[in-house]
Amino acid sequence: MNIALLANPTAGKGRKAGLLPEVVARLRAGGHTVDVVTAGSRDAMVDLGRQAVADGRAVVAMGGDGTVHLGLQAVAGTGAPFGIVPAGTGNDFAVRLGLPGDTLAAAEAIAAHTRTTSIDLAKVSGGGTTAWFGAVMAAGFDAFVNERANRMRWPRGPQRYNLAIVAELLALRSRRYQMRIDEVESEFDSVLVAIGNTESYGGGFRIVPGADPTDGLLDVVVAEPLSRRTLMRLRPKVFKGTHVEDPRVSTFRARRIELAAEGVTAYADGERICPLPVTIECVPGALNLIG
Ligand SMILES: Nc1ncnc2c1ncn2[C@@H]1O[C@H](COP(=O)(O)OP(=O)(O)OP(=O)(O)O)[C@@H](O)[C@H]1O
Predict the structure, then answer these.
(1) What ipTM score was computed for the predicted complex, to two decimals?
(2) What is the pTM of this model?
(3) What is the DSSP string of the chain?
(4) Of the CATH numbers 1.25.40.10, 3.20.20.140, 2.60.200.40, 3.40.50.700, which one belongs to the domain with range 129-285?
(5) Which residues line ligand 1 (CB under 6 A)?
């Protein structure tokens, strides 16, 4: 393969950045041509990824879910082979796809690859933009946490998220949502709405347990209005995915979802998408995954 390696040296707090030369060496050892692509902005990264696809190259993203998300914008629906070298903090998408979690092992697996697999992706449209995502779109409490953490300048790293969680818990209130799942319309109050192509985000939070990226469907999790205390009690259950057994949590499966609410911004793969309303569709086989 002729590989464009989209590398985000800041992923995973930069701890894996030093492995970049070794990742390149292992990919080359498989007989592939490798160009490292770095960019000063997300948009530039996507543009370079698209250019690589136009040039007929395979794209490999080295970073976490955010970097993978950028790579997906370039390769989705094109048939271009896409590989993931996990180097982020969470790497939820790669882990859920059963890819090697270790950075160098993943590079070796890509180098030695003998096949690609078709994986579904989700396509979200709203506010005049369209984006692809691989893992989970948040449109409730978790999206507010993400939005707040993005606005904060201090502290850096996971502490920022912990502080954002506390602040959003203090500000917790339900919102009124309008949702159309395939042909069924509903209106409800909720504190949390998440839509998954795969199960988890945030380093193993299985918020949408059972989401299968090969079934042609997206999974939806909706929580009723909950008190802070109940939300905090449910939180540890999310690691096992058992929060959906709670009667206040509902799950659905659908090919297409329309979701609207006032004052809610959607986040997907941890990246800001746009304020609701949005339409989310499952696009079967949109990703040609190496591995
Ligand atoms: N070239 C770039 N310029 C600016 N930002 C980038 C670039 N490449 C990636 N990013 C952004 O950097 C952020 C962090 O990257 P990423 O999500 O890959 O790492 P992480 O947060 O450590 O991992 P994870 O999301 O798996 O926990 C993301 O928001 C991603 O979109």
Answers:
(1) 0.95
(2) 0.96
(3) -EEEEEE-TTGGGGTTGGGHHHHHHHHHHTT-EEEEE--SSHHHHHHHHHHHHHTT-EEEEEESHHHHHHHHHHHTTT--EEEEEE-SS--HHHHHTT--SSHHHHHHHHHT---EEEEEEEEEEETTEEEEESSEEE-SHHHHHHHHHHH--SS-THHHHHHHHHHHHHT---EEEEEEETTEEEEEEESEEEEESSS-BTTTB-SSTT--TTSS-EEEEEE----HHHHHHHGGGGGTTGGGGSTTEEEEEESEEEEEETT-EEEETTEEEEESPEEEEEEEEEEEEE-
(4) 2.60.200.40
(5) 8, 10-12, 39-42, 45, 63-67, 70, 88-91, 270-271
